[in-house]
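Work Package 4 report. The design task specified in the project plan requires that, given a folded chain encoded as C-alpha cells, an amino acid be chosen for each position. We show below one input record used in the internal validation round.
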C-alpha cells in the first residue's frame, strides 16, 4: 500500500491526518525537526484522544511528514529557553512541558489500538521516547536513535522511562550515559526497533503490518494490549493470576466464540468487536 493511496481526511496542521480503511495515519508536521513544542504535543494528544473515541480505527501509524532526515528531535529547546526569562526562571513552564509529554506517551500506551512508529531519520531524546512508547516500531536502514540529554547538562529522565521498558538496562544506560547515537541495526539488537528496511519499502511494510493487525478482532487486540502492559509491571505470580482472569473474560466474548468456532469449522471469522 502506497502513501498516495491514503485518503486525506484533514487539512495539514502540526499533525497531518489521513485514513486508509481502519488504519489511521498521523504525520508530525513541524519542520525542520518535528520538535515537541507545547502546541505539537497538544496536537498529537488531541489526535490520539480522537482515535480512542473512533471505534472504526483499529491501528494508528505515527510518522513524520518530512521523512529522511529527522523523525523527531525531542523537546523544543528554544521554546524552553525563552521561559528562562519568566519570574520563576521557567519552572512552571518546564513542569507543564514535562507533564504534557508524559501524558502524550501514556496516551499512546493506553490507547486501545496498537500504535506503530514509522521512522525514517533521527529520533532523538523525547523523539526516541516516542518510538519506545509505540507498540511496534519500523525504520529505514539509515535511521538513527539517541538520548543525548547528558551532553547538554539535561539528563533524559523522562525518555528513560519508555527506553528502560523496551531495552535491557545496561543498553539503556549506555544510551543515557554516553548520549551517543546508535544506528538502526544496533537499535534492533537493543530491542527498540522491530524491523529495518530500505526507505522505498518502509511505508509498504508498515501498512502490511497495520492491515494484518486490523484484520483481527478489535476487542481481542484491545484486551491483549492492555493485559500486556499491565502484567509486565507485576510479579510472576500476580501476572499469571491476572492474565488467567483476562483469558476467562476473553473466552466469554462473542468474538472468542466466533473465532474458535470459525477455526473448528475451517471458515473465516466475522468479528463484531463484542
Amino acid at each position: 500500500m502506497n502513501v498516495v493511496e491514503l485518503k486525506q481526511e484533514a487539512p495539514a496542521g502540526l499533525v497531518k491526518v489521513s485514513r486508509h480503511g481502519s488504519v489511521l495515519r498521523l504525520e508530525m508536521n513541524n519542520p525542520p525537526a518535528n520538535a515537541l513544542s507545547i502546541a505539537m504535543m497538544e496536537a498529537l494528544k488531541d489526535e490520539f484522544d480522537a482515535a480512542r473515541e473512533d471505534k472504526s480505527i483499529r491501528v494508528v501509524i505515527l510518522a513524520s511528514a518530512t521523512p529522511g532526515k529527522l523523525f523527531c528531535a525531542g523537546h523544543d529547546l528554544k521554546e524552553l529557553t525563552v521561559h528562562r526569562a519568566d519570574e520563576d526562571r521557567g519552572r512552571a513552564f518546564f513542569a507543564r512541558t514535562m507533564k504534557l509529554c508524559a501524558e502524550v506517551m501514556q496516551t499512546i500506551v493506553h490507547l486501545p489500538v496498537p500504535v506503530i512508529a514509522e521512522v525514517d531519520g533521527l529520533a532523538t531524546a523525547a523523539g526516541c521516547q516516542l518510538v519506545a512508547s509505540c507498540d511496534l516500531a519500523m525504520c529505514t536502514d539509515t535511521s538513527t536513535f539517541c538520548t543525548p540529554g547528558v551532553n547538554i547538562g539535561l539528563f533524559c529522565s523522562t525518555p528513560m522511562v519508555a527506553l528502560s521498558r523496551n531495552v535491557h538496562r545496561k543498553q539503556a544506560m549506555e544510551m543515557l550515559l554516553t548520549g551517543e547515537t546508535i544506528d538502526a541495526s544496533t537499535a534492533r539488537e537493543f530491542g527498540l526497533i522491530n524491523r529495518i528496511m530500505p526507505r522505498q519499502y518502509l511505508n509498504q511494510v508498515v501498512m502490511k503490518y497495520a492491515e494484518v493487525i486490523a484484520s483481527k478482532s478489535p476487542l481481542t487486540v484491545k484486551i491483549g494490549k492492555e493485559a500486556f502492559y499491565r502484567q509486565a509491571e507485576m510479579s510472576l505470580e500476580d501476572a499469571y493470576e491476572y492474565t488467567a482472569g483476562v483469558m476467562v473474560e476473553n473466552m466469554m466474548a462473542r468474538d472468542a466464540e466466533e473465532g474458535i468456532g470459525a477455526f473448528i469449522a475451517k471458515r473465516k471469522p466475522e468479528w463484531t468487536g463484542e
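The first strand starts at residue 7 and ends at 8. Validation will be extended to a larger panel in the next phase.
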